[in-house]
Write a structure and sequence with these properties.
Bound molecules: pyridoxal-5'-phosphate
Keywords: Aminotransferase, Transferase
Cofactor: pyridoxal 5'-phosphate
Strand content: 5-15%
Protein name: 8-amino-7-oxononanoate synthase
Helix content: 25-40%
Shape: globular
Radius of gyration: 22 Å
Oligomer: single chain
GO molecular function: 8-amino-7-oxononanoate synthase activity; pyridoxal phosphate binding; transaminase activity
EC number: 2.3.1.47
Length: 430
């Protein structure tokens, strides 16, 4: 499940034994057998409609927020670059970078208004390999083993995994809660001041769709001399800098949470990716140039990983063009469509954590044991969502998550809203 949080997947280390886990895995196997929402094979797509076997459903489970996966200009872009570069530039980035790489990094640095950027294949790769480096080196690359990583309690599972690797390499690891900054201050003060301290958290939260209190957290990190490491996988492409000409509260340019909240990159490393709003495969870090040089040579992927295929580099560049030419209109449309769903949810008085208008909409069930019946209704009405079922989430958080994209049609939104009305007796209300 793409946006699953560490807090939502019960940490396997918490179980006493494999035996204790077995009933949970059996429940997962049962869900796979009896609902249609796990390990589905999609046979065909038509716009945002998907066919699974003989059944057509409106897809509200993809993270292609801007609809770039279906944009004719972007779809046409790989052919020309493949004719020029072949299908795959199979050097590690250390050995050779097709010119597409510096072009992407230059355009991305300008878009984000960041000091510099480094692109690597995926965010997961970045977390697993870069967090351990930043736990033993400061941003200027001075090595000092035994630093501290402070992972926010709701941080994405892949961040937590990166922090765990850092711990395995000698770092101290602590959790903190975004709504308790005194706790964060306390942990920062108790960590060795002469060693690196890295505070890790999500930007737009992948379950609630809400942003963090970045200005206060960034200020606290600066006061305490710590580095803030923010994963805005979902926000990049959708939210951006605020301005008079903005077409929606998402802001302008889709240049991510730091710019959206009027923050600076001072002491902040931003992580993002192209695999959601940009419908491509590539991830980035926004960081000072000296930290970029450190990461290039101290973390494995720049040196040793194979690069992403040419088609991904081409669709990233075409995505920048479309974002420049039509991004504001697309975001306005995405905002309007998301609002139609959120308005329905409010009219039905459904409990929903989303207060931002972001196209990630989580709907918890009153009773987790209704999940099969809810899945059946969704399937029968032709609505495909991310099912948040136990054991993927704790029982009290069972429900489903809807993601709206700009390429969902209004007819699909009508169908979703109609289904939400039917499902409302099963959903938590306020
Ligand atoms: C917040 C967050 N971080 C990281 C990832 C993983 O990104 P990638 O596929 O680039 O490894 C996801 C994917 O769902 C995510 O939601």
């Amino acid at each position: 499940m793409s946006g699953t949080k560490t807090s939502n997947i019960r940490d396997p280390r918490g179980s006493a034994s494999t035996q204790a886990r077995t009933p949970r895995w059996q429940e997962l196997a049962r869900l796979k057998r009896e609902t249609h929402f796990f390990d589905a094979v999609i046979d065909e797509i038509d716009g945002r409609m998907i066919r699974i076997g003989e059944h057509w459903l409106a897809d509200f489970a993809s993270c292609n927020y801007l609809g770039f996966d279906l944009d004719p200009e972007i779809m046409a872009s790989p052919a020309e670059q493949i004719a020029r570069w072949g299908t795959h530039p199979s050097w590690s980035r250390l050995l050779g970078n097709p010119r597409l790489y510096p072009e992407i990094e230059e355009r991305l640095t300008e878009l984000l208004g960041a000091p510099d950027t480094l692109v690597l294949p995926t965010i997961t790769t970045i977390h697993l390999t870069v967090i351990p480096v930043l736990a033993q080196c400061d941003m200027a690359g001075r090595y000092s083993a035994g630093g501290t990583v402070l992972c926010e309690a709701q941080a994405h599972r892949t961040i937590f995994d990166g922090c765990s690797v850092a711990k395995g390499q000698g770092a101290q690891l602590h959790r903190w809660h975004a709504d308790d900054l005194d706790q964060l201050r306390d942990l920062l003060r108790r960590a060795a001041p002469d060693k690196p301290r890295l505070v890790c958290m999500d930007g737009i939260n992948s379950m609630t769709g809400n942003p963090p209190d970045l200005p206060r957290i960034a200020d606290l990190c600066r006061e305490e001399g710590a580095t803030l490491y923010v994963d805005d996988a979902h926000g990049f492409g959708v939210i951006g800098e605020r301005g008079e000409n903005e077409t929606s509260p998402f802001g302008l340019r889709g240049n991510s949470v730091v710019r959206h909240l009027g923050e600076s990159y001072d002491g902040v490393i931003l992580i993002g990716g192209f695999s959601k709003a940009y419908s491509s495969l590539l991830a980035f870090m926004a960081l000072p140039t000296e930290t970029k040089e450190l990461v290039k040579f101290a973390a494995a992927p720049y040196l040793y990983s194979g690069p992403v295929p040419t088609a991904s580099l081409a669709t990233v560049l075409a995505g920048f063009d479309v974002n420049e030419a039509r991004g504001e209109a697309i975001r306005a449309d995405l905002y309007r469509k998301t609002k139609r769903v959120l308005d329905e949810i409010r009219a039905l008085k459904l409990d929903c954590p989303n207060t931002s208008g972001f196209p990630v909409i989580e709907l918890p069930l009153k009773d987790a044991s209704d999940i099969d019946e809810v899945a059946r209704i969704l399937w029968d009405r032709g609505i495909y969502v991310t099912l948040a079922a136990y054991p993927l989430v704790p029982r009290d958080q069972a429900g489903f998550r809807v993601q709206v994209t700009a390429s969902n049609t209004d007819a699909e939104i009508d169908r979703l809203n109609q289904t939400l009305r039917e499902l409302s007796p099963y959903l938590r209300t306020w």
